[in-house]
């Protein structure tokens, strides 16, 4: 695919609003359409961002012949149904984190994508931030020796509101799927899939997780200690420990500008790599490059990693007594959020 890639946005919510300005930093990518389960919301979003078409249902944008790729920014339980329909229509996909509400849902999307040979990637922008790219290079070059442990936290204080998506079980609310996915994905990126998952935390009255602490264990003794919360703020920092030093990822680690390398016996080395735009541009650039190269998944955010992260999130949720569900009627239902 050498021509311009025409994008459609599924779900004009908060994250989609933030993403739109970064298309200007991605040569060859142009947003042309938006879909909401409310025609009025779709039309208003299209006017704000100069889009050519506004669809009043997700099914309509999936069927739009003038859209090449879809950015799925609906609530988590709706990702599954939208993604399956889009894959059957041959649309490339960038699906917001968390990829789906359940591990089973993620596995079904991945299996369908591979069967159809259609590109799909989780929109985990952290992996594409220039500072994180540099961190991975340093680790690969042995700057801190063998990585043995990862620490990461990401928490915010939100006033409890059962009407807000973040606290609604049917919309995939809770700390794990919105914020915990970042700490888990960061650890998985550096350590791989864990052998054991332990979690403790608390719930809001609606039954979604308010906070969680996770301990990921590996058979060879490596570990990750991770914290996420909607009940209290945290610095949003990460630290990667190796046998020959460590690397600090300064707040907020999921879209950092600066990392600090601490080699054993040496002075700290500060490395600053600012993002292009607000930072979302890099994941769209990755999709563009993959599509033009004919690839069906990204080497930076491969589908196997997405499945590993989703499995950890599902297991942690189970420890907390939270049961997430997919929304099978996402393409037909009334507007709840996007």
TrEMBL record:
GO molecular function, one term: oxidoreductase activity
Alphabetized UniProt keyword annotations: Oxidoreductase
Boundaries of every Gfo/Idh/MocA-like oxidoreductase N-terminal domain copy: 5-121
A Pfam family matched in the record: GFO_IDH_MocA_C3
Domain GFO/IDH/MocA-like oxidoreductase as annotated: residue spans: 133-247
PANTHER family per the UniProt record, alphabetical: OXIDOREDUCTASES, TRANS-1,2-DIHYDROBENZENE-1,2-DIOL DEHYDROGENASE
Family (UniProt): Belongs to the Gfo/Idh/MocA family.
Name of the featured protein: Predicted dehydrogenase
Lineage: Bacteria, Bacillati, Actinomycetota, Actinomycetes, Geodermatophilales
